[in-house]
Structure prediction request, 308 residues.
Amino acid sequence: MGNTGDTAFGRRLLAAVSGLMIFAVAACGSNGNVPETRAEDPAGMKPAGTAWPLTAREKSLLYDAEQAMVQSCMARKGFKVWKVPENPVPEDKSFPYVVADLAWAQRHGYGSDVRRRIAQVRRTDPNRRYLQSLPPQRRTQAVDAYSGRTGGLEVRLPTGAIAGRNTDGCLAETEGELYGGLAKWFRAKAVTNSLASIRRADVLADPQFRESTREWATCMRRHGHRYTDPSQARAAFVSDKAKDQKEEVRTAVDEARCAHSTGLSATAQRLDARYDQRLQKKYRAAVDSRLQLERGALPRARAYLSGH
Prediction:
């Protein structure tokens, strides 16, 4: 399922409703064959004094605190916000290089059923319905209350792009309070979030990955599929047009089997880890800054949630 790097919902991105941002910030999915976060350091590459990455439970704690703090802030400004489940569609998974989970492919193919479920969750989201129920002027005020209107923060990303954000609104207030400073948190988060796309581009361009992909394509031809790479196979089924579900599942299952038999999934995982290590080292200052800010936020998150 060719998502996001960040999955269909993206990793905590803001959805748009009639051109306006909704309040919900949803995190959903995981990478099927390559984990997005690495909580271990088997090679002993972690520099002394560096904070360990957060566990899934600690990330959930920060997520819950952010949701509760935003909800409280919006209530003070006269608006309603419903908390969004951290993982509203648990079966959503992202495969950035190749579908490598055979059991998932046997059940979901390339994920057309999952995408329908995601669309349903979005349609029934109470935050979306609430925004749509407001008069236009009031709706604009609600969005401004959440995301703010005053810019001021900018950072150049490793990709060369410039990321900017507002310094007012409930989201900015929450992040500044929780992480001990909005500017520091925004810079660290923006830079580290951009590393995944760079890593994937590096893997896809690597000669070893390309060679494994050619072997994968040969395997797929033996099963009757003439695709040159996994993205081409995925694109044949990931669209708004109705497709044969059985054919989708059969193709995805063949893709997963070929990914394992040719070593493509193993190659992708090895290269992903290699390029991740290089990027972590190259942007160590931003990586360490984010980890330290997240670690520092944990006591504040616990205190806030225990008091509310």
Notes: The longest helix spans residues 284-307. Confidence is low (pLDDT under 50) at residues 1-45. The chain is about 55% helix and 5% strand. Strands lie at 11-17, 20-27, 153-156, 162-165.
